[in-house]
Design goal:
binds 3-phosphoglyceric acid, about 425 residues, 18 helices, alpha/beta, 6-stranded parallel sheet
Amino acid sequence: MRFGIKTLDDASVQGKTVLCRVDINQPVDRVSGTLKSINRIQACVPTIRELSDKGAKVVLLAHQGSDIEYKNYYTTKPHAAVLSRLLEREVRWIDDVCGPAARDRIRTLKDGQILLLDNVRFVAEEQTLFEMKLRLSHEQQAQTQLVTKLAPLADLYVCDAFAAAHRDQPSLCGFEQVLPSYMGRLFEKEFCTVSQVMEAPDRPCVFVLGGAKISDAFLMMNTVLARGVADQVLTGGLVANIFLTALGRPIGQGSLDFILKSNYGEYIERAKELYAQFGRRICLPEDLAWVKDNQRCESPVPQVPDDITAVDIGHRTAERYREAILSAKTVFVNGPMGVFEQEPSEYGTRQVWQALADTQGFTVLGGGDSITATEKYKLTDKMGYICTGGGALIRFLTGEELPVVRALRHGAEVSEPKMR
Ligand code: 3PG
């Protein structure tokens, strides 16, 4: 037991059916149907291997999102193939989550076998927008289709999805109400390391926030600024564009259209309020980049032309951010500075990432795109700590008790079903 949660050391799994929630949500190339990174899949291999080696019938539950926040979900089929390769044993897969086909398949599993179910978010009650609107209690989550259909087939629940520990959804918080529950090895490592390391960051403490996961970024920014955790927040990507818009600065019509089309308009107002209160500690880009005829173009923010879409921070901003990172003692990073996947728009992210590698400060990175960028620039060994969680890490940093942590503490008290 660590931090009030049982670990796999406390579990006896031989011959038992174990529902194991993993976070193998990876950037997907929807055109080729392949995964752009497999780091999260690699990270949960030790738990799955241990369960299988110890003779459990392992049923994996996972979600797979999309590039467009919370809108399009994608099958977990490619993940099963990757897992099979990494584990060097067959990982079965079924295009069902908790219907009769999935349940039949679970019943036929033999000791040591592994089955990955399809994307849990194909089930309506598991969806993030649903979660946010309905706010089901953990007891109510135990009444959902997913939990009522699958829990009776299982003996234990293991959560190895620290990266999704901020989500209050049935696959993450419902099973702990009815099954004895444990954290997997990855969850244990991440939760315990981050708990210990993050309680008192060395200062100055700088947050680098970019990317396109706007709701997460805004949620934590307010708290870390208000509580004085962050001495400085360096903004990039869509986060920066929203702030610039809030201050009436030009970002190009294409960027503005994207913000409005993605229903992020409400964040413009929130950015205004945040800036009014904490503007001294929020750094915004002073120049932006866009691409024309496959060539990178840049200009200081006041002169950004109207007919462009900003895709990166400019050289001057990148230099300023580099200096801030080099003088920091702790740096939290979530999200790239721009469209780093393409050569003309990668400069800002590349520079910032190089600064993270060069700084003497302790660097903590989280989030799928941040990890992809780290891999792209071959800087994995130069970072202090790479957490598989983006939103979860950030939510944790706000001091909030993560819903999954609360549920696992509850699940530590639940006893095993006597008969099935
Ligand atoms: C993540 O990528 O942060 C986790 O997998 C959770 O995904 P979500 O933000 O789509 O819930």
